[in-house]
Amino acid sequence: MNPKVDFFFSDATKWQKEFVLLRKLLLSCGLQEELKWGNPCYTFQGTNIVLIHGFKEYCALLFFKGALLKDPDGILIQQTKNVQAARQIRFTNVQEINTLQHTIKACVYEAIEVEKAGLKVHFKQTEDFTVPEELHRKMKNMPALKKAFNALSPGRQRAYLHYFAQAKQSKTRESRIEKYVDQILAGKGLND
Predict the structure, then answer these.
(1) Which pTM does this prediction carry?
(2) Tens digits of per-residue pLDDT, 60-75?
(3) Secondary-structure breakdown of the chain: helix, strand, coil percentages, each rounded to the nearest 5
């Protein structure tokens, strides 16, 4: 048990019973416990396997390479269409966790085997993302922006492309692009 993680569980106001049960279940699988991104994270030989987190409507286990798990029961959920690797198992009460204990453990053990085998999730490449027309125009009129954007890491490029393309209206896309021009020129990512 980890004191930082102990504090997380003692400080939780929602899902506390569910968190405690999930913690016990994950520790029984031989995983190491750490606090990462403000949440209990369970690792195998230093590699992230699964994270416990809570939301307003549910608490969940997040399997980092869940897309590689078999999921014969169809319980692994892709949070959004843009999440490529991670998958969740969601819970709204202790009974659901108790009912799925064997399935949860099977997922954990399979996730460990995925790590032992060195399997990797094949992520979409930057060129697979749509470049909004508004960004094309801006880069055409501002060659320094195009050069700076192309110099960004692929992850930073994808984050910008995703964020800009999310906007439904052209006016909103233009506004978002304009807001981040200086940051792109400075070589910074969306969240830097």
Answers:
(1) 0.72
(2) 999 999 999 999 999 9
(3) 50, 15, 35
